[in-house]
Design goal:
The structure is a homodimer of 418-residue chains.
Chain A (H helix, E strand, L loop, with lengths): L1 E13 L2 E13 L2 E6 L11 E11 L1 E7 L14 H14 L4 H17 L2 E7 L4 H14 L2 E5 L1 E2 L11 H13 L6 E3 L2 E2 L7 H14 L4 E4 L3 H10 L6 H6 L9 E4 L5 H10 L2 E4 L1 H6 L7 H6 L3 E4 L11 H19 L6 H8 L1 H6 L14 E4 L13 H11 L5 E6 L2 E3 L4
Parallel strand pairs in A: 1-4, 5-6, 6-7, 7-9, 8-10, 11-12, 12-13, 13-14
Antiparallel strand pairs in A: 1-2, 2-3, 4-15, 15-16, 16-17
Chain lengths: 418, 418
């Protein structure tokens, strides 16, 4: 089936490069991008057209790190230090995913909130609960969100959500056997080194190799955590090696935070093709620090963005993009490293994540469409006619659900709950 | 007339102290607070009652620094350095206030946006235009927003919005003669030292004394500005002295930013009763730095918060409160100064501003009610029943217009445009 979208097209095919097609056309064949045009080629003249006239057709967002079972505690406990926050809020909240009816309600609300905020690709941590994890995948699939979900593995220091090593491995296998979703796929998810015994990490490394599975975890988020990892793995010179030792550090591995990753760790990310997921709101909320994003990029590390719900309090990825700009300005004030421009930060929150999943450079031909249509007509009346670059920037800063008129995910137009 | 409000009452009578009255009653007499009660006294049993049952009745916000004519450029030009930002965007945008029909539309949209976001008290910079300034006052009054508005004075380095010294003074007098609004009063507003000649500052100081008018301006926002002020006023050891010299540094003076105010400048604020207006979003957006809020407070300076639209991109003051927490966490990471807790930052964004206008300590008896009623039932389903402190914190982080069920300003219930 051929479909045509008409509107102002804005995308970032390369880091920092915003491409604008005013009054343009996107032609889709079976949801895949056949081409972008300034003028509609004659052969498409009779095809069905969605006319978004003066709206902005922008890339949708990719949220590469969030914790679904923490969604119920969004915006709470932020005055607590990391370990108290984990023990007072996080683990107890995650424990509730034992109740599948509750998990279903939370996952449905989260999935709807994601898609209506323009997030169409995600890599999510579930809890340790297999059934709730399958429910999460089902609810994302139903809402039109695509990407990866992981049942969390944690066989030590996990309070009420700890599992035994055997249980962790056998439940992971049971979970994998039951993952049968079209657009939501499994990713192995050891919580982080302090919560996983060596035996568990080893088993997960074996599973990753055996079933060719991707891996996600946390890395170098705060200094206390790094000291603890050093204590637990005296043989490892650096944090990343604790994952590498067990075959979990490889192309396609996602590592959230990397706030305190030094040169060697950054080089190991670039060398192995590990993606750093920058979570600016969370890093500030939990007083972790500000990640050296420009340095990571300069070293050739692939960097994407994450909301890190609920260490982060911002689910809407345009607000996370803005937070990444603010965090980079803080870094600039301190170190002089140039801040992230709007097109650069937008690339991190869109293209970088889409590419992780095999998507293209912006709206690249051959790839399924992931887009949001933004109606900015209710934003403050400007002092003069704005150009599209200005409207793009303003939308990144100001858009919320009310401005999002349509969302396309994996080539499908999604019906939004308003 | 007696009116009664029923709901969960939350307010900050002192810096950092949150007082909670679950299922409480606020009794109003002619819009003034007669008392807060756990149980409704019998004598009020037959009086009209607004039942907000399970909603939160919280203090409304005070935005102590924003630029009305910059509202049209909200969320734009953020990648530019301060001076380019002023010259490319700000001055041209402000120049449009020459057109009173345009000014009317912008002011109406801004006033409605303020009140529906729960901001009931403001101190606003208008442009240099007298007529537009009067329109701004009228539109705030109409929407139910109270506080101060200033016609901006700027007789040098003002590009398209510069005025002559004589014009600046005579137009200020004309403006003052025409200020006849019940809840919106004039405040003298020299833009900042670099934009005002000595003659103008002197005339404004005279006017301030003559008509007993309050003053607002900018102080020590960025290092380039401070160097420029030093150059213009070689006789002044510090920036604040350039205002003091002309009688503009006095009790009731509002100084926005104070990012780089050192010990002596801070002490001069405390000594003279000058209020520092902290604008965390703006300071980061424009790479100015992070204000030493804890230090200012420890030195006895009265500190309130401002959105600083449009250097700031966040009009909703709960989001500015959250940004002040984030900024303080950045400062903590760098210097160890304890970050602002949620009740502390909330006090800055509410009580501190209300007190500036003569309001009380939280919902203090004898003061007119300034409140927002928050319905948090559509926020993510929590993992367990939340206590009111948690719901308060969550509301500060997550609320937006959709959650604001009612707004009271100066004792009056405002009809919100939804």
């Amino acid at each position: 089936m051929t479909q045509i979208l008409h509107g102002h097209i804005l995308h970032t095919p390369q880091f920092g490069r915003l491409e604008v097609i005013p009054d343009g056309y996107i032609v889709l064949e079976e949801g895949g991008i056949a081409g972008l045009y300034n003028t509609l080629p004659k052969k498409y003249a009779a095809m069905p057209l969605e006319d978004y006239s003066d709206c902005l057709i922008m890339q949708s967002f990719a949220d590469m790190h969030l914790h679904a079972p923490q969604y119920p505690m969004l915006g709470m406990g932020m005055d607590l230090p990391l370990l108290d926050w984990l023990n007072t809020y996080t683990f107890c909240t995650e424990a509730r995913f034992q109740d599948t009816l509750y998990a279903r309600r939370v996952c449905r609300q989260l999935a709807e909130d994601l898609i209506s905020s323009g997030t169409t690709r995600v890599s999510v941590f579930s809890s340790r609960h297999t059934d709730a994890t399958l429910i999460l995948m089902e609810e994302l699939e139903r809402a039109g969100v695509t990407g990866f979900v992981g049942k969390v593995n944690m066989d030590r220091s996990g309070g009420p959500v700890q599992e035994s090593t055997d249980e962790s491995v056998s439940e992971t296998r049971r979970w994998l056997e039951n993952c049968r979703f079209a657009h939501v796929k499994p990713i192995l998810t050891p919580r982080f080194t302090p919560c996983c015994t060596d035996t568990l990490l080893k088993e997960l490394g074996r599973l990753a190799a055996e079933q060719n599975l991707p891996v996600q975890s946390h890395l170098s988020e705060n200094t206390g955590e790094i000291a603890l990892v050093k204590e637990l793995h005296p043989d490892c010179h650096q944090y990343w090696e604790t994952y590498h030792k067990y075959g979990l550090w490889k192309k396609g591995t996602l590592m959230a935070h990397c706030v305190h990753s030094g040169r060697e760790e950054q080089e190991a990310m670039a060398e192995y093709g590990v993606t750093a997921v920058h979570c600016p709101a969370s890093n500030v909320n939990l007083c972790s620090g500000t990640a050296p994003v420009r340095e990571l990029l300069n070293r050739g590390v692939h960097v994407a963005l994450g909301s890190d719900i609920a260490g982060g309090d911002l689910l809407a990825m345009n607000r996370v993009i803005v937070m990444s700009i603010r965090a980079s300005k803080i870094v600039q004030i301190a170190t002089g490293a140039p801040f992230l421009t709007v097109p650069e930060a937008y690339w991190l929150g869109t293209t970088a994540g889409h590419q992780y999943f095999g998507g293209g450079a912006g709206f690249q031909a051959g790839c399924k469409l992931h887009a949001v249509v933004v109606d900015d007509s209710a934003m403050p009346e400007p002092a003069r006619k704005l150009d599209l670059t200005e409207r793009f920037e303003r939308s990144v800063y100001l858009m919320d659900k009310r401005h999002i008129k349509a969302v396309y995910s994996e080539g499908r137009k999604i019906s939004l709950q308003k």
